[in-house]
Write a structure and sequence with these properties.
Largest sheet: 4 strands, antiparallel
Distance between the termini: 120 Å
Number of helices: 6
Oligomer: single chain
Number of strands: 4
Shape: elongated
Amino acid sequence: MTTSTATPPAKAGSKKLLWVIVALLVILVGMACAAGAWYFLKGDAPAETTQESAQSAPAPVPVFVELKPFTVNLNDGSGRILYVGITLKAEGEEAATTLREQMPEVRNRILMVLTGQQGDQLTTPAGKQALAQALIGAFEQPFNGDTNSVAVSDALFTDFIVQ
């Protein structure tokens, strides 16, 4: 008398059904995770960006206006000369267009500032920074009776030789 306690073999169809159910559960859990991530990461982003854009207006894109190099005699009585290449950083395309249209007056204003400089002052970094500020200040006056001055935010030196 032998008794068998082994279970009868399972049907092949029930194993397939089990795998289909497991696959559907994995897909369902994946979709729930993706929806949760989207909700928490992207749900509040549009509200923040609209508040930020309303608070700050976009800054004008700077436009660089390159000038021909200048060679001037310095005002120190020693016969020293200054050779300098300058690029002006204009605040926006409108200011750059005004600078290009008024180039003779732009060059004149810069020459007036350059010829009033002392050679000993220009050899130090502080002297060069002071010269850049003086050049920016030369554009605070409007051109030819305009009511607005041209927005020049920086004067950049591309060449600088004191001889």
